[in-house]
Design brief:
By secondary structure, the protein is α/β, with parallel strands linked by helices. It has two domains: 18-214, Alpha-Beta Complex (2-enoyl-CoA Hydratase, Chain A, domain 1), CATH 3.90.226.10; 233-268. It contains eleven helices and nine strands. The strands form two sheets. It has a six-stranded mixed β-sheet, sandwiched between helices. A three-stranded mixed β-sheet has the order 5-7-8. The protein is globular and about 65 Å long. Keywords: Isomerase.
């Protein structure tokens, strides 16, 4: 696991494949293989699983920001590394399973996640994008599947999440073509919330994360959890979970502070 030095005294090295920095409620996770377009090999997959698990379990973390160093967010798997794996298909399965640990940790957490992407996002990078909750793309970004280019099938939650994000027909178009969507197309399809100038991606993503931290981060996180976990429940179970969650939120300090401020403002007018 790679961590940059931060307010918690976490050690780390800037040349490790995944960087984690926790400061002022924000966990910043950075893919850090820029020479390989942040493509995953086994060490990076292991670091990803460990770093994301640490971030979602850390008691101070109220928002997560995911970014990639260099000219691409994530090109998916490192084909050269994959081709040289001694265990063949079993090794590829292990690689995917390790990255899945991190993806599931993001999806199952009650912490909102913003992703800042520039350049190419493809293959497993698309899975990480889909596992985040709010996506900011640079205006020259490209987003696609491209697994079939090397004869492989989608993984890292792409088939679990893509159709829900863009619709089944568009999901099929993306995985059955050698196609990279422009940033504007990705936004139109629902894969990105915002498209901004490339030089503004990091700043805008951090502003989103800070707005959660400075606001009702717990309520945002629970709203995310309710939506992400909906497939696990029937309609009746979902309604019951909503009722339970809003009741629990009402008893918490975030709601108490904001309701008091709202009522005070209403009386003043």
């Amino acid at each position: 696991m790679a961590t940059k030095e931060n307010e918690h005294g976490l050690p780390g090295a800037a040349d490790e494949p995944i960087l984690l920095e926790i400061s002022d409620g924000l966990a910043r996770i950075t893919l850090n293989r820029p020479a390989k377009l942040n493509a995953f090999d086994v060490p990076m997959a292991n670091a990803w699983a460990d770093v994301v698990t640490e971030a979602v379990r850390h008691p101070d973390v109220r928002a997560i920001l995911i970014a990639g160093n260099g000219r691409a967010f994530c090109a998916g798997g490192d084909v050269q590394s994959i081709a040289s794996m001694p265990d063949g298909g079993a090794g590829v399965t292990f690689l995917a399973e390790r990255i899945n640990v991190g993806a599931r940790a993001l999806l199952e957490s009650a912490i909102p996640v913003v992703l800042a992407a520039q350049g190419a996002t493809a293959g497993g990078g698309l899975g990480i994008l889909l596992s985040s909750d709010y996506v900011v793309l640079g205006e020259r970004s490209r987003v696609g599947s491209r697994y079939a280019n090397i004869g492989l099938t989608p993984d890292l939650a792409v088939t679990a999440l893509l159709a829900a994000a863009v619709g089944e027909r568009r999901a099929l178009q993306l995985v059955l073509q050698d196609r990279l969507l422009s940033a504007q197309e990705a936004q139109e399809w629902g894969l990105a919330a915002e498209v901004v100038p490339d030089e503004s991606v990091a700043e805008r993503a951090e502003a989103i994360a800070r707005s959660w931290i400075d606001g009702a981060a717990g309520a945002y996180g629970q709203a995310k959890r309710l939506i992400r976990s909906r497939p696990e429940r029937s309609l009746a179970e979902q309604l019951a979970e909503e009722a339970r969650t809003i009741g629990a939120a009402f008893e918490g300090p975030e709601a108490a502070e904001r309701i008091a401020a709202f009522l005070g403002g209403a009386r003043a007018t």
